[in-house]
Amino acid sequence: MVRKLIFSIFRYNPADPSSRPQTKKYKLEETENLNLFVALNKIREEQDPSLQFDFCCRAGICGACAMVINGRPGLACHTKAKDLPADISLMPLPGFKLVGDLSVDTGTWFRSMNEKVESWVHTDKKFDPQAEEERMGNDVAEKIYELERCIECGCCVSACATAQMRDDFLGAVALNRIARFIIDPRDKRQEKEYFEVVGTDQGIFGCMGLLGCEDVCPKHLPLQDQLAFVRRRMGIHALKRILPWKN
Ligand code: SF4
Ligand code: SF4
Ligand code: FES
Hints:
- The chain is α+β, with helices and mostly antiparallel strands.
- Helix 3 (138-148) packs antiparallel against helix 6, helix 6 (171-182) packs across helix 9 and helix 7 crosses helix 9.
- Helices cover 35% and strands 15% of the residues.
- The mean pLDDT is 95.
- Strand 3 (66-69) and strand 4 (72-75) form a beta hairpin.
- The protein is elongated and about 70 Å long.
- Bound molecules: iron/sulfur cluster (2 copies) and FE2/S2 (inorganic) cluster.
- The site of one iron/sulfur cluster has 14 residues, from helix 5, helix 6 and helix 8.
């Protein structure tokens, strides 16, 4: 039997002074393999052209379609209606500036985070476009690649209690970035430089370790392992500062 889906969607346009936050209901017949990205487009095309939401790649690559789906952050384009009950609630990701309805501005947050953790390889080498590529062992390259798969969707930030309580918390995504640079032999930063960036309450020592971030990451990044890795490295560095004979 074809299911009748009922979408309860958060509606609010902060740019319109007459707009008030509310939930609007839309009905849609389920079709085979319907995903939420297609469902939202159908609702916008057939029922309500004013509905705002973001998408770009439709393939789980751009991170733009992240939203809270039945209480859990996830990607609309990667979520199939058949995996959900017929009542589907959609909310914008918390922790980011609301653009309107389901659309949030994750870009400003991620730009600021990337600047704070200096998210680039620090090296004294001058860039020579004629030079041959430097070789890197496969094992290191694979480890870096694994952590580079982050699509900056923001789901982990929205699922993180610390990030929701504290605007200055860098979040698992930033700690994962730092882990990626620590293992990159081209990055010449010393332990104390990493410590200045994430050896604080805004960084790894503010993390409560409940792992909402890992639970919701649509790319299944090993965030738990990276948080433990950074915590251990920064913990050892902190210990050496207090107990210099540990060096
Ligand atoms: S484990 Fe840390 S980073 Fe992850 S959700 Fe919890 S507080 Fe946030
Ligand atoms: S770590 Fe995962 S949940 Fe967080 S921004 Fe990257 S892909 Fe999204
Ligand atoms: S539209 Fe790009 S991740 Fe969903």
